[in-house]
Each structure stands twice: as C-alpha cells, then as structure tokens.
Amino acid sequence: MRRSVHCDPEGPGATAPPPSLTLRGVVKRFRGPNGRTRTVLDGLDLTVKPGEFMALIGPTGCGKSTVLSLISGAARPDGGQVLVGGEPVSGADPRTGFVFQQDAVFPWKTVLANVAAGPRFRGVDRKDAETRAHDWLHRVGLSGFEHYYPHQLSGGMRKRVALAQTLVNEPRLLLLDEPFSGLDAQTRQIMCDELLDLWEGTGASVVLVTHDLEEAIALADSVAVLTAGPTAVKKEFAVDLPRPRRVREIRFRQRFVELHEQVWSCLSDEVRIAYARTTTAAV
After folding, report:
1. Burial 164-197, CB ≥16 within 10 A → b, else e
2. Can you give the pLDDT at residue 94?
3. What is the DSSP letter of 13?
C-alpha cells in the first residue's frame, strides 16, 4: 500500500495543517562578474504537503540548489514568499534539516561527536545527546564505528554519518542536495533504500534535488520538472507507485517505465535549451 502523504483533520471542524513548504512567486537574482544582474528564479510556485517526498529535477545550472538555499534560510528571495509550516522563512530554522552534496562533517570530531553535535548546539546535555547519537548510528548501521574519524570511513559510511547527523535533530522538513552523487552505483542504490527506510519512520517532508531521473521517480511521491531558466515549475508528476519501495525492484515495474517516459519527455526539451545556451556562450 502506498504511504499516504495527507494529514486528515482529527474531527469535525478541525483545521487541516498548513503545507510543510510553500513557495509563492519566488524570484531570485544574482549579479554576475560582468556586473549584469541575472534572474535565476522567476515566479517559482511550489507546495509540499505534510509527509510528502518531492523531487526537483531540471537542467544543470537551472537553480535547483538555489531553491534549497532559499528554503533553508541561507539566502533570501528578491520577490515572492518562502513559507515553512505556514510561516515566512527569515533564517535558519531548527525544524529544517539539510544534507549537502559534500560531507558537512567535522573532520576533527569522531563519528559519535559529529552526530551528537546538533543536539548539543540545541542545548541538550552531553549524556542525552550521545544517547540520541548512539541510537541513530545504530539505525544507519554504524554501531561499532562511534570512535572512528571521518577520514577512516568509506564514502558510503560518511553519507550515513551525514544522514544520522541531520535526522538526530528530528527535522520536520528534510532538504537533500544530490546527497549520493559522489557514490558508486551499487552504494548509491543501497543508500537510497536506507534513506527510504529511515524517512518512512519520521513523518518528515522531503525536498530532494537530483540530476538522476530514475532516482527521483524511485524515491519520491511527486517530481517537479524545472525549466531551463529563468526557472519556474514546468510540470509536476504524481508518482503513483506503491510503498514501501526497493529502488532496484521498483525500476522494473511497468508503471515506473511509463512515468520515466512521461517525465523525460517533459524534461528533455529543457535540457536541450540549457545545452544550446552553454554551447552558444562558449563560441
């Protein structure tokens, strides 16, 4: 049975919770080295429901990571609104967790200290923070590696540390910026399955940025295709595949193949536009 992403009111007259994430008419501009202003996002609208897993996919350089920066509060929009839980984003929000493309671990800290760092920064005493860290390291399969340092771990193990480091803070909104892009194909598949297992027990909403169309469909409840730029949402696709899922197995389903064709048909035009722009600029 597919995991529901809707939160029903608890009784007659109850008010439904606000979306986990809302972007309304978001505009973002950057000034280039030539002094000219470039509009990266132009009227971006997006809504993520409570508990929903959404994937953002689009051509290289279209602004996918910029969207995550705006959601996290690391950057501010030049127009429009970014709301988390119905409230405007005005800076870093403890309800939001971020797993970066590069490992955001402290190289001088042990695995245990890395995972316990978030709770410690939030005022949790050392004993309780380490208890939580031990629990999450067990969940991600790293029991026995608590006293290792990041440089002593494989790439896949460091990604597990990064997931534990983020999930230990119990975020209500999880942002993933191509978190497995640097891994080999086999490890990446394993990590995708582990991510789904960990997420389904949290109830958090997720926004995943990825260049991998198969990964987007295999993981998400919905896939939003972004235009080549200035970026807006071209089309959203509901991924009506059953949960729980196993990434390797789900790719052989006929419905997966159909969705892949539909999304690629929408995305491929944007990829060609973006590629034509880069080749023209290089001449």
Report:
1. bbbbbbebbbbbbbbbbeebeeebbbbbbbbbbe
2. 86
3. T
The residue type of 126 is R
Rg (CA), the chain: 19
**pLDDT, average across residues 215-237:** 94
| Cα-based distances in Å from 8 to 11, 86, 99, 182 | 9, 17, 29, 39
Q: What is the pLDDT of residues 139-184, one digit of tens each?
A: 999 999 999 999 999 988 999 999 999 999 999 999 999 988 878 8
Mean pLDDT, range 237-253, rounded to an integer: 93
3-state SS class at 185 = helix
pLDDT confidence of residue 31: 86
| Concatenated DSSP letters of 72-126 | HTSS--SEEEEEETTEE--S--TTEEEE-SS----TTS-HHHHHHHHHHHTT--H
Question: CA 27, CA 43: separation in Å to the nearest integer?
Answer: 6
